[in-house]
Structures are given as C-alpha cells and as structure tokens.
C-alpha cells in the first residue's frame, strides 16, 4: 500500500499539481525528488521527529518518512521545553528531519544531503506511519500509533463522503502536528492528488485570496471568517467547507451558509481513531450534527448502566467506535490501550453523543471535564496543572475550559497560592505549547472537593 498515490501519479505523468505552503510553491515531481533524497537517509521502523511548522520543508519531511517507512513524530512548532523533551524521549526518535532551532534538543539533524539514521541492536522496528501525541488529561501526552492502513481507510472514507477528487483545490491554514492539518490537510491532498494551498495563518483574508474549491477550518476560523463579510463572500466559488476539531456553533453554521452560499459539513474523530463520522457532501447538512459513520466504521452508545442504547435521536450515551480507521493504541502503554478498548474491539471515545434512527450523530461533549477544546486545539487540563505546579508560589491548581465566543472554550486556571497572573501564564507558555497557556488565572482560597478528595471541576465551571 502507498498513501501517496495521487502525488505519485502526478509525478509520473508530469501533470500539474500546485503545492503551496505559506507562499512557497513546489510541483509534484520536485516535491517527490527532494523527499526521496531525504528518505534514502532514513530506516524503516526507526522513528524520527520533525518540527511541524507550516513550511514546505515539513511537507517534504512527511513525504520522506512515509516513503521510507520511518515513523514520523510531528512536534508542535510552539512546543515548550518540557513538552518536546517528553515527546522525544517517549517516542524514541533517533533524529530530527531538518534544522529545528531548538537548543535543548540534542539529536542528529538529517537533511537531504547530510546525516543518516540506522537501527539500534535490541530495539524492534515500529510498524507505524505516524506517532501523534495527544494532550494528556492526567499527565504527559501519549503517543498514538497510526499505521498506514488506518490512515488510508480514513482518507478513502472521506474521499467518498466529500466527493473529494483531483480537481479540487484544498485550502487550509491548520497546524501540521495533529490529525486535522497533517493527516487530512496534507496527506489527504497528496493521496487524492488535488492541489494544496496552506495559507500559513488561517486569516479570513488568506482564505479569501486562495480561491479554493475545498476548505478546512476549525470553529474559530469560521467564526472569524463570518465576521469579515467580504472575505466570507469570496468563498462563494467553493463547493465544500469542512469544519472539525470542535463543535461548530449553530449561529456560525447558519451565517456561513448565508455568506458563502454553501452550508458547511462537520465531521468527528480523535487522534486515536482518526475520522469516524462525517456529514456527506451529497447529503443533508444538519446544524449541530456531525453526520454518518464512514464506510466500514461502526458506532454505538452505552448507557450509565452499561447497556447498549438503541439509536432514537434523543438518548445520550457514551460513544464507542469500531472499524478500520482506528490506530494501534498508545506507544509503550499497553495497559492504557487495553483500558480504552472493549473485549470485542470497540474504542471508548470518552465523548457523549446522540444517534438518530437515521444514523445521524450529534456529539454532546466530553464525558469528563478534563479535555478543553480551545481554538480548534484539544488540550489536556492535567498537563497544564502540572506546569502550573512548578511555580513555587502555587499550593494547588485546577484547570477548566469556560465557554468563549471566539475560541469555543478558554483555558482558566483556579489557583491556590501567592502568584502573579502574568508570571504564571508565562511559565506555562515556556513549558508547554503557547496555545495551552491559561487565558485567565483565578485565585481562590481552596478548591472544592468531594468526600474522596477529588476536585469538583463542575463547581469551578459554574462559579
């Protein structure tokens, strides 16, 4: 199997394929030639990392790793010292592809004409195309193993659902270190064989100028777009607008349809499962809903009593999924992987949902309160709390997401101790990715706890 069939077809025939990443352009043959030079220096099964900035070099690194069968570990461009140190150690990455500019990372650098990575005796090769790190809800991020077969099943399912063809021109400005921007937004375009324009920052003006037929965005992107009427109306030539990574507010859904002439489609997935549910381009686009299960994917709801809930369009249950898009679990954490799976192969998503008799899904939200969706990013409260605890003036802290018209949720930290708000925010920004910084610090005398000593975050959210 080869994930890059569309790219290979264009390179073989010399047909036109525009690939533009933050204004830097490449043809299919040029991209493939540069990637193959880099791939020659990699070894199948040996992980390598990349600073996943919005550059053509990042895309070349992605293609090279896929061509070599070397598991790629994308690291956020704005990652902090503690976060990237953990990811590099946990993943076993042996080198970094391209210059990264991180003085704290002591790994060999592999370029198109320098460096190489070889196996280490006693370490078995990893069978994965990507190792993508989730935001830890109870500790450091975990690496999800995504094999080629799962990525292909996801992308082929979306190609069917969205009518995605080589004639499309995909436009987005999403980060390249997670599933939405990297798997869908880069590998997806190269598999389908359509032109790709990454705008750098996903501003309304950049989206309007790109003249795409297919656009990807998170709710924050679409919210800002509908606030810019001229830019939104410039998207009237697009055939499909896709929203994901967090629920799209109904008001934004409706306004986007008014200004662009096309109602958006929403989809649902996780790093661990890739995309499992989506609205179809040729079907109903229902606000507040994420559509139907992709081909080969099964979904079901389980009640608090442990019984399976029949789809009725009303009853909320815990969502479980099964199918070919699922990853191979968490790297080096078999006990955590096992805890997330049922004996018959269903993945426990941790999300609550409603499924209609027609198969339409509505995601209600996280079953727990420890995952915050802010600006299209999914952020774990646990790792932010751990970073805050590093401040000498902090006695204890709890982090929650509060509703925000722009970001979806904003990160708010409730802190017991003697701290300066700006200093604490700066500490988190220096330790983790900048998008994980609290937008607000609230000093409290004590955190509410139950009889077992567990912090009652629901009370904090309602305070």
| Radius of gyration using CA atoms only | 22 Å
Report the structural category.
alpha/beta
What is the CATH class of one domain?
Alpha Beta
Low-confidence stretches: none
Helix fraction bin: 25-40%
Mean pLDDT over all positions: 92
Shape: globular
Overall number of strands: 25
**Termini distance?**
53 Å
CATH structural fold name of one domain: Rossmann fold
Largest sheet: 9 strands, mixed
Strand order, sheet with most strands: 2-1-10-9-11-12-13-14-15
Number of helices: 14
Task: Please give the CATH architecture of one domain.
Answer: 3-Layer(aba) Sandwich
Tell me what portion of residues adopts beta-strand conformation.
25-35%
CATH superfamily of one domain: ANL, N-terminal domain
Written account of the structure:
- Among the domains are: 5-149, ANL, N-terminal domain (Rossmann fold); 371-462, ANL, C-terminal domain (GMP Synthetase, Chain A, domain 3, 2-Layer Sandwich).
- 29% of the residues lie in helices and 25% in strands.
- The chain has 14 helices and 25 strands.
- The strands form seven sheets. Strands 2-1-10-9-11-12-13-14-15 form a nine-stranded mixed beta sheet.
- A hairpin with a 5-residue loop joins β16 (298-302) and β17 (308-309).
- The radius of gyration is 22 Å and the shape is globular.
- The model has no long low-confidence stretch (mean pLDDT 92).
State the main characteristics.
single chain; about 475 residues; alpha/beta; Rossmann fold; GMP Synthetase, Chain A, domain 3; 5-stranded antiparallel beta sheet; 25 strands; about 25% strand
């Amino acid at each position: 199997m080869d994930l890059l069939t569309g790219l290979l077809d264009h390179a073989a025939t010399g047909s036109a394929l525009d690939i533009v990443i933050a204004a830097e352009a490449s043809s299919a043959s040029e991209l493939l030639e540069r990637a193959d030079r880099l791939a020659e220096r990699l070894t199948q099964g040996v992980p390598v990392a990349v600073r996943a900035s919005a550059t053509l070099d990042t895309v070349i690194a992605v293609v090279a790793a896929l061509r070599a069968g070397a598991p790629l570990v994308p690291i956020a461009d704005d990652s902090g010292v503690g976060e990237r140190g953990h990811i590099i150690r946990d993943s076993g990455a042996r080198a970094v592809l391209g210059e990264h500019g991180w003085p704290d990372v002591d790994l060999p650098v592999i370029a198109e004409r320098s460096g190489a990575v070889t196996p280490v005796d006693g370490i078995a090769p990893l069978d994965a195309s990507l190792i993508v790190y989730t935001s830890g809800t109870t500790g450091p991020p975990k690496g999800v193993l995504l094999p080629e077969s799962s990525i292909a099943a996801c992308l082929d399912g979306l190609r069917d659902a969205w009518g995605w063809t080589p004639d499309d021109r995909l436009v987005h400005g999403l980060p390249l270190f997670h599933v939405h921007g990297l798997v869908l937004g880069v590998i997806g375009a190269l598999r389908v064989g359509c032109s790709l324009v990454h705008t750098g920052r996903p501003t309304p003006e950049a989206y309007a100028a790109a003249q795409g037929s297919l656009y990807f965005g998170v709710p924050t992107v679409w919210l800002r777009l509908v606030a810019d009427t001229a830019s939104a109306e410039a998207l009237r030539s697009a055939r499909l607008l896709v929203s994901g990574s967090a629920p799209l507010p109904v008001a934004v859904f409706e306004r986007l349809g008014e200004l662009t002439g096309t109602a958006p489609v929403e989809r649902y997935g996780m790093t661990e499962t890739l995309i499992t549910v989506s609205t179809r381009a040729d079907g109903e686009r229902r606000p507040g809903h994420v559509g139907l299960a992709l081909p080969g994917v099964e979904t079901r709801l389980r009640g608090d009593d442990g019984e399976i809930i029949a789809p009725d369009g009303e009853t909320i249950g815990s969502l479980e999924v099964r199918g070919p898009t699922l990853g191979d679990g968490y790297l080096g954490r078999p006990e955590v992987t096992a805890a997330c799976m049922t004996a018959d192969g269903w993945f426990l998503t941790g999300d609550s949902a409603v499924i209609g008799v027609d198969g339409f899904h509505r995601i209600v939200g996280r079953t727990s309160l420890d995952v915050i969706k802010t600006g299209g990013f999914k952020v774990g409260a646990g790792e932010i709390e751990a970073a805050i605890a590093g401040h000498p003036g902090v006695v204890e802290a709890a982090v929650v997401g509060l509703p925000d018209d722009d970001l979806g949720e904003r990160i708010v930290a409730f802190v017991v101790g003697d701290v300066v708000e700006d200093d604490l925010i700066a500490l988190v920004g220096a330790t983790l990715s900048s998008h994980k910084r609290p937008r607000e610090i609230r000093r409290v005398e004590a955190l509410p706890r139950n009889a077992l000593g567990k912090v009652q975050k629901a009370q904090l959210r309602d305070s």
